[in-house]
From TrEMBL:
It holds the Pfam family GCIP_N. Residues 50-179 form the Cyclin-D1-binding protein 1-like N-terminal domain. Residues 194-281 form the Cyclin-D1-binding protein 1-like C-terminal domain. This is Cyclin D-type binding-protein 1.
Length: 312
């Protein structure tokens, strides 16, 4: 059999496999789970089965990569189908945050396997290229994420809150660092003026003294936002309970609320509402703190508005 015929015989099953992986990936990314009685759902059994399925995908990716360095048997997709089937076991009522985490991790594995097949298709017959080894390692890395995924909706929401707290912390630190600069904080982006040129008059490119006065209360608002997220995270950690569908839905609502605070243009306005009083995680001590926070937010917001509306 000629080399061209051998390549053709190999390419057909590989392309079929690649098309199947892409279809499965799209269904996992965009499809709905199979709803079941959430209260009877065995989350522990789900994770045991999912981890076994992901381990099988990792092992088969290795076999696939090595097999095509020699005349190969036809590829199969049993482990991929098993992993996607197990994913569909997880009902939305177990928590949207948890399901998103499992979905994103599953899609990452499927995309990694798809990339590996693409690399094999592009590689010379009976070879083991560095790119092929790298793609195999990418599948391993995606599969290795599963043991560290949050195991229930409370843990998933806690993970999201921690990430949001980090974003707010970074924003506050960037403002503070810029305020420490004695010169225009954006001068390095615009280049130095020639000696013959007059100083730049467009103050939209740097902070005026009036701008700096407004930044003070804006910093207060950002710090209040960070404090709100930290207190919310503490309340979820202490009082959060993922044992009922109602509590899991409340936890999802809290995560959705915090996601609204992250777009940069709406950051100061959308990140100020304190944790929901109707949530089971908000006890008497948290309610007192929320009232204090509301007063601090109102004070800083009004101060910022007054300064921005005042005459230059």
């Amino acid at each position: 059999m000629s080399s061209d015929n051998s390549r053709g015989d190999i390419s057909i099953p590989l392309r079929n496999l690649l098309n199947s992986i892409r279809c499965i990936r799209d269904r996992v990314r965009d499809g709905e789970s199979n709803e079941s009685d959430s209260e009877e759902f065995d989350l522990s059994n789900f994770w045991d089965t999912m981890n076994q399925a992901v381990k099988a995908v990792s092992q088969e990716a290795t076999k696939l990569s090595l097999a095509f360095s020699t005349p190969p048997p036809p590829p199969h997709q049993k482990s991929i189908l098993t992993m996607s089937t197990v994913y569909y076991w997880l009902p939305k009522s177990q928590g949207l945050s948890l399901r998103r985490a499992v979905r994103d991790a599953s899609v990452e594995v499927l995309e990694g396997v798809g990339q590996l097949v693409e690399v094999i298709l592009a590689s010379p017959l009976q070879s083991l290229s560095q790119e092929q080894l790298t793609s195999t390692g990418g599948v391993w890395s995606a599969c290795d994420r599963f043991p560290s995924l949050p195991r229930d909706n409370k843990a998933s929401v806690m993970l999201a809150l921690s990430a949001h707290i980090g974003v707010v912390k970074d924003a506050i630190e960037e403002i503070e660092q810029a305020l420490l600069e004695e010169e225009d904080p954006f001068s390095d982006l615009l280049g130095d003026l020639d000696e013959e040129e007059e100083p730049r008059g467009n103050q939209d490119t740097y902070w005026s003294e009036r701008d700096r006065r407004v930044i003070g209360p804006c910093q207060g608002l950002m710090k209040a936002s960070g404090a709100c997220l930290r207190k919310l995270s503490s309340a979820v950690r202490t009082n959060g309970d993922a044992g009922s569908a109602q509590n899991r839905a409340q936890l999802d609502d809290l995560e959705d609320f915090t996601c609204l605070s992250l777009p940069t243009l709406n950051f100061l306005l959308l990140s100020l509402t304190p944790p929901s009083r109707s949530s089971h995680v908000c006890g008497e001590s948290e309610l007192t703190w929320v009232q204090f926070l509301e007063a601090a937010v109102d004070h800083n917001l009004q101060k910022a508005k007054d300064l921005m509306q005042s005459d230059p």
